[in-house]
Write a structure and sequence with these properties.
single chain; about 325 residues; alpha/beta; eight-stranded parallel barrel; two-stranded antiparallel sheet; 13 helices; 11 strands
Length: about 325
């Protein structure tokens, strides 16, 4: 199976739908396999509506939400939206779900408890597959035609989330980064979930997610992604530090202690606390040759799909450079 490459946060920092459309079309032209949008209501154009419009302008790329939550949208609303997007895009939609992050906290709300979250994932997956569910007033399901169910992915970093995904999701968006030891750890946790539910681990797709920056100067590429990695790393380590090597634990603890989730994205932590370990773990950043070498390691370990978030300041440069200097290496192997 050939390695898939998707772009994430197509609308990060972009306020114009025309610009988003250009990015989506360009991603398809350059040979990327998918585009994923984060869900940050009020600060970004609605992801479902945006992807529906992108579906009209593209033919091939996957169209994914990565990720939304059940705090602001009821599971039945999410099921209907995912099924609708999948119909509009002729089977190219993916719904990514999380318990809730930045937008939830900044409004003084709480993330969805794991038990309730699992129930919601199961309900959404049940409904998008054309089944009805029992509610206090009777049985209801999606009444419009569903030609193909939209796959339901869970964004997970901690052991409980990974096991949950193994029990009831179609796929996992791994926020654990690109450390191969952690990738193996995550696979084992997902397998524990699939085994407990009597499922085959092959039923659960895995998408490794992280930052991307491609430059002729590798040090400059890693400097650029340093700030943007902070939020991703903090989200990961809220759940567990068991994936951090002993020699890196002190640095990660200092990073966590200095992080303030209530501040703007770029100012949540002192950049000096984002050390080299965090940069390497949560990004593919460097020269084209360095990026190819990192991805070859991941591919050899069994990674089949990468979701890459280009640094905002050099979004276009990274998208173009990766497509022209990195992608051809892997397409020639297909």
């Amino acid at each position: 199976m050939s390695l898939k490459f998707s772009l994430h946060s197509l609308h990060g920092g972009v306020k114009s739908i025309d610009e988003i459309h250009k990015r989506a079309q360009r991603a398809e032209e350059l040979g990327y396999d998918g585009i994923f949008l984060g869900e940050s209501h009020l600060s970004s154009i609605d992801s479902f509506q945006t992807l529906a419009s992108c579906a009209m302008l593209t033919q091939r790329v996957l169209l994914g939400i990565a990720v939304t939550n059940m705090v602001f949208r009821h599971p039945t609303v999410l099921a209907g939206a995912a099924a609708s997007l999948n119909e509009i895009s002729k089977g190219r939609a993916i719904l990514g779900l999380g318990t809730g992050d930045g937008p939830v906290y900044t409004q003084g709300l709480k993330a969805t408890p794991m038990k309730q979250f699992e129930e919601g994932v199961k309900l959404i997956r049940h409904l998008v597959r054309g089944n009805s569910a029992r509610f206090p007033t009777g049985e209801f399901g999606i009444s419009f035609t569903i030609k193909k169910p939209a796959p339901i992915y869970v964004s997970a970093e901690g052991p409980k989330g990974l096991q949950l995904a193994g029990r009831c999701a179609d796929g996992v968006i791994l926020g654990t980064g690109f450390d191969l030891r952690v990738f193996d750890w995550a696979k084992n946790k997902i397998r524990e979930g699939t085994e407990s539910a009597g499922r085959d681990a092959k039923e659960v797709a895995m998408v490794a997610a992280g930052m991307l920056c491609v430059r002729d100067d590798g040090k400059e590429a890693r400097r650029i992604v340093r700030n943007r990695i902070a939020n991703r790393a903090h989200h990961n380590f809220r759940f567990t530090l068991e994936t951090v090597p002993a020699e890196e634990l002190n640095g990660v603890q200092k990073f966590m202690a200095g992080f303030d989730v209530m501040k703007p994205m770029e100012d949540r932590v002192d950049p000096d606390l984002v050390n080299d370990y965090l940069v390497r773990r949560f990004s593919i950043a460097g020269t084209p040759g360095e990026c190819i070498a990192r991805i070859e390691e991941l591919k050899a370990a069994g990674v089949e799909h990468l979701m890459l978030t280009p640094a905002r300041k050099v979004y276009h440069e990274s998208v173009e450079a990766f497509a022209s200097k990195v992608l051809p290496h892997f397409r020639s192997q297909a």
